[in-house]
Amino acid sequence: MTSSTDIRAVVLRTAGTNCDGEMVRAFTLAEAQTDLVHLDRVIAEPALLERYDLIAFPGGFSYGDDVGAGRVFAVKVREHLFPALRAAHERGVPMIGVCNGFQVLVQAGLLPGNEIHAEPDRPTVALAMNSVGRLIDDWPGVEYDADSACIWTQGLAGLEEPVNLLPLASGEGRFVPASDDVMRTLEANRQIAVRYTSDINGSAGRVAGICDPTGRIFGLMPHPDRYLEWTHHPYWTRLEREQMRGDPPGLRYFINAVQAVSAGRAALAS
């Protein structure tokens, strides 16, 4: 795929991921040159990640979620790619994990805190079974913290219903911190980027998405990659014309990331 920029994104797919196409389209619409690459190929040659300015972990049911949602994918990332991902982070590469990808980021030790700067130990947050005990397939409302460090959600604070809806499709999406101290740290570090407007799945603090302290590594359960056009909205025909001005909220995540990379390059060149 071609683009008007030379910013490059990679979407890592594997057995069972099923939102890789949406993720590729999201970055392509945001004008990044985007490659879809199998996880095993990158494990065989971790230096491939050095080519990319953006890294994405898509949603789906990787390896059938047989031993837990995202578990096998996360173990493979943790065992084989952690040094390469740490190096990418140190050179300023933004990363995103959506739904199953968020579960991977957490279990691999890439979120929520400074784990990426050391060998990962045990996660300080988890994504557990929804409080309703089943998969939730819905478009809940979300809200954005204007003070968040997250580069992906910049400019989205203040969106009102129904524009602020995001598609959600997960069974293990309930955000659970290991302790109250973990939650307080996330709050203090401005790492809570997205919250549900209602208690849809029992997540602590209604958390839908978090970033690392730099704001570059970002994981969330709802799917911005499924809200790239206004016609994706579940009742777009009832939206007012002025509500549909500009880019849809889901696409703005990816535009923000591409612009952040571009701004970083400009700063280095000046």
Topology:
Blueprint: E1 8-13, H1 20-29, E2 33-38, H2 39-44, E3 54-57, H3 71-80, H4 82-90, E4 95-98, H5 100-108, E5 125-128, E6 136-138, E7 142-144, E8 168-170, E9 174-177, H6 180-188, E10 192-196, E11 207-211, E12 217-220, H7 249-269
Helix pairs in contact: 3-5
Structural class from helices and strands?
alpha/beta
Mean pLDDT: 94
Principal-axes shape call? globular
> How is the biggest beta sheet arranged?
8 strands, mixed
**H/I helix tally:** 7
> If classified by CATH, what would the architecture be?
3-Layer(aba) Sandwich
Secondary-structure element string = EHEHEHHEHEEEEEHEEEH
Question: Which fold name corresponds to the CATH topology?
Answer: Rossmann fold
Q: What percent of the residues sit in helical stretches (DSSP H or I)?
A: 25-40%
Write the CATH homologous superfamily.
Class I glutamine amidotransferase (GATase) domain
Spatial arrangement of strands, main beta sheet? 2-1-3-4-12-11-10-7
CATH class: Alpha Beta
Total of domains: 1
User: Separation of termini?
Assistant: 30 Å
Task: Walk me through the structure.
This protein is an alpha/beta fold and 270 residues long. The protein has one domain: Rossmann fold. The protein has helices at residues 20-29, 39-44, 71-80, 82-90, 100-108, 180-188, 249-269, and strands at 8-13, 33-38, 54-57, 95-98, 125-128, 136-138, 142-144, 168-170, 174-177, 192-196, 207-211, 217-220. Helix 3 crosses helix 5. The longest helix has 21 residues, at 249-269. The model has no long low-confidence stretch (mean pLDDT 94).
